[in-house]
Amino acid sequence: MNLPSVEYKANHSQLLRTLTMAKQLQARRLDGIDHNPWVEFVRLSKEYDTVNLGQGFPDFSPPDFAVQAFQQAVSGDFMLNQYTTAFGYPPLTKILASFFGKLLGQEMDPLKNVLVTVGAYGALFTAFQALVDEGDEVIIIEPAFDCYEPMTMMAGGRPVFVSLKPSAPKGQLGCSNDWQLDPTELASKFTPHTKILVLNTPNNPLGKVFSKTELELVADLCQKHDVLCISDEVYQWLVYDGHQHISIGICSPWPRVASLPGMWDRTLTIGSAGKSFSATGWKVGWAIGPDNIMKHLRTVHQNSIFHCPTQAQAAVAQCFEREQQHFGQPSSYFLQLPQAMRLNRDHMVRSLQSVGLQPLIPQGSYFLIADISDFKSKMPDLPGAADEPYDRRFAKWMIKNKGLVAIPVSIFFSRPHQKDFDHYVRFCFVKDEATLQAMDERLRKWRVELQP
After folding, report:
1. pLDDT higher for 30 or 317?
2. Are residues 287 and 419 both part of a single domain?
3. Given 165, 242, 379, 426, which residue has the most CB atoms within 10 angstroms?
4. Where's the Aminotransferase class I/classII large domain (predicted)?
């Protein structure tokens, strides 16, 4: 028997490799979404000596009761090291149904109306995969958290954008409420192909808290066109200056306000334990909604991650049980956190103004955006690619030359709209006092450099 020669084997192997590599490796659904600007800015923040005010996480400890709950979950019942129920650790789904049910006046079944996910990010991804089909249109109100667009595209949908428009009074410090929806423009975005509208209140990056009038506009259009609403409400407890968070799917947390009629049946409400209890690394989120919608999310969930880490869920369950006992009282963390963060916000506003940045005062969330128009007119030729939005060049310049990290707001806009909103950067003020003092020191040096 004649065996193949070594040379034949080598040539045959090379041919197979060539044929294999000729195929497209990536799935088509990844086309156009491979670049993530966060990777670049996180890398730059580590390369230089910076105060990181870009990423949205607290750099202080969660409340003592939350830390103790996690410690107990790790060191207590050994069975918490094992799998739990697929759609959520039963004590957690039970307290979420009870907490939001009593608070919002909506009867909730922990098995049918609640799904626990790997963070709110996981809830969003599961929702898009479960509900968006090829050719479906998804209306996104921008500026918008930058995962909505790629998640829509990965599911085969087509994102349709409508921009909030600023209208700050001249000579006054602007605020996030100055950014408004144009009712006519919003209505024009609805077509027979519209499947979902994505709402984010309080909004990231703007910090806008949508009013009941604005939510009624959205609700009326969703019902008129038979459209679902995904309502991202991860910052619902971070609301300032007497403003009120209202959930479009149910009702306002406090004080009680009647639901927007008809919206419970067509709304998914997304929440986050990480944002609620200042523990973003726990990655516990949830989706709440009617069973006829939730059952489709459960299908995706059971065929992807199946269930979430048990111990983190057990800790979050204890946190909500504690919060339910203290809710509305001075001891409530959901009252204490926004009170403390409002002081941080005001501190940052004053400090940024000292070097010519013009902050917009947010009504809610972790963030404020600052107008850099004066810098754009005074130093328009910062290093960068010719087609790179100015705010991205400015953010890189500030990292390298001033040691301060912020995120360019243009990344929160669709590509056609980025050129219209390239004169803002986003800062996170949910930071430790030491971080804010370090920011002040960098800004003092900057202010000295500005003096003639």
Report:
1. 317
2. no
3. 426
4. 49-437
